[in-house]
Design brief:
There is one protein chain. The chain has 458 residues and is of the alpha/beta class. It is built from 13 helices and 16 strands. The chain is globular and about 60 Å long.
């Protein structure tokens, strides 16, 4: 069967948050862009997600954000987090400084794609990408796909990998001579499952997102889309023994009175990265964005903000390179710097705590977490940093009696996380300093493994 050919400035693989913002940004700048999406149009946007975000300020202003909010932000009154201690039943209530939201992920995805088409980008549904096309010098020049039974080659100056966790594009492309991070394995990912559940009576936590540690290294969540529609899910780190996700979630829900007589409206599972961002997400003619580049908060699994921002930044940096026909790694490199000196440094610091956690029992971690002052816990989960006054330090020492050895170790880990965060601030502005930067970063990680006793993750 001969392959038809289509030519674009930019071809984007995947119609999630990252893919939509990449294509919308490109089209708004006058570039000819297409999204390739494996699902049919009626299923596009149906993605497993926790649905919780900070707010519409997270998103680049290349689509109608008011329309997005009005159509898909079903609960805009999230003002606290609740951490449940599975051993004692006690709750830690942490107020938010700024209200967050829970959204209808299906409708959110549909609106994103409506807005992407409105911006001028094309979307090809029912299109399954099967291979990456490269020239003799290794530059990515497009992809090969099957669209409604026909083999189609999509040629492009720039190929954008927005295909999500463990993307097939990275398996198919030969990136050995590029800076692109290929140090990727299943153990750096989380397996997750969620159900959308309609409960008979309004819950009393419709202004909160609820977290509960599992027996394995992971957590359950209960996020209220409305006061009677709950996104209930859980995930676990793939370094740990496999968890029967559906059974664990069902067992916990059976113990919660609000789910008596509830109706399950939707079920879906997925894998997501719980690792630091890729050291480099560029190669000649190729960039990765969102989940495909590890742009996910490694402690909470939140990936919508990183996907939207990274996709927008990648295309903004690539516009001149595409127009001039010079999409080398060197020309695309500034995108790496944008990510690493922004949320990348925070996510790398948070991953330090993930790694430390793999060396400890969940009960030990739970006791420490529930004893930490609320704001310090939020800062650790969202910024990768903590700081406490002397009074709070003394109170924490009293509350964590019996875990002081672990707490001392955590103090050392915190210093390492801060060192790592500072190092990411020095991420090189050009590829020339990359190897030296990596050597120093890996030395900091060696300190972490020595202090924590955790197995190396990378």
């Amino acid at each position: 069967m001969s392959a038809a050919s289509n030519s674009y400035d930019i071809v984007v693989v995947g119609a999630g948050t990252a893919g939509a913002f990449a294509a919308a940004t490109a089209a708004s700048e006058g570039l000819d862009a297409v999204i390739l999406e494996r699902k049919p149009e009626e299923e596009a946007g149906h993605i497993a997600c926790g649905d919780a975000i900070k707010g519409k300020s997270t998103f680049p202003d290349v689509i109608d954000l008011d329309y997005l909010r009005e159509e898909s932000f079903t609960n805009q009154n999230i003002r606290r987090a609740i951490f449940e201690n599975p051993k004692t039943g006690e709750e830690l209530d942490v107020p938010f400084g700024q209200a967050g939201a829970v959204l209808d992920r299906k409708r959110y995805g549909e609106v994103l794609l409506e807005e992407t088409e409105r911006s001028g980008a094309a979307i090809h549904y029912d299109t399954v990408v099967q291979d990456v096309v490269q020239d003799d010098d290794g530059r990515v020049t497009g992809v090969r796909a099957k669209r409604k039974g026909d083999v189609v080659t999509y040629e492009a100056e720039l190929t954008v990998d927005a295909a999500g966790a463990l993307s097939i594009l990275q398996d198919k492309a030969d990136l050995r001579d590029a800076s692109f991070d290929t140090n990727v394995s299943y153990s750096q990912f989380c397996s997750a499952y969620r159900e959308v559940v309609e409960v008979p009576e309004p819950v009393d936590y419709d202004d909160a997102i609820v977290f509960k540690p599992t027996e394995e290294l992971g957590y359950l969540w209960y996020f209220p889309r409305t006061d009677t529609e709950i996104n209930a899910g859980l995930g676990f780190q793939m370094t740990e023994p496999p968890m029967k996700l559906v059974e664990v979630l069902k067992r916990d829900m059976q113990q919660r009175p609000e789910f008596d007589g509830a109706t399950v409206k939707d079920k879906l599972g997925a894998a997501l990265p719980t690792r630091r961002p890729y050291d480099s997400a560029v190669a000649d003619g190729f960039v990765a964005v969102g989940d495909a580049a590890g742009h996910v908060n490694p402690t909470t699994g939140g990936g919508i903000p990183g996907a939207a921002k990274s996709a927008h930044w990648a295309i903004k940096r690539a516009i001149d390179a595409v127009v001039e026909g010079d999409v080398t790694e060197e020309r695309l490199w500034a995108y790496n710097n944008d990510v690493m000196t922004d949320f990348g440094k925070r996510f790398a610091a948070m991953d330090v705590y993930n790694i430390w956690g793999t060396a400890h029992e969940v009960d030990d971690l739970t006791d420490i977490i529930t004893a930490l002052p609320g704001q310090q816990l939020v800062n650790a989960m969202t910024k990768g940093e903590t700081s406490m006054s002397l009074r709070l330090k003394l109170k924490t020492l009293v509350d964590t009696y019996g875990h002081w050895d672990t707490l001392i170790e955590l103090y050392k880990v915190r210093r390492i996380a801060n060192d790592l965060k500072d190092h990411y601030e020095t991420y090189p502005s050009r590829p020339g300093g990359f190897e030296t930067w990596l050597e120093t970063r890996d030395s900091i990680m060696d300190d972490l493994y020595a202090v924590s006793g955790a197995d190396p993750k990378y």
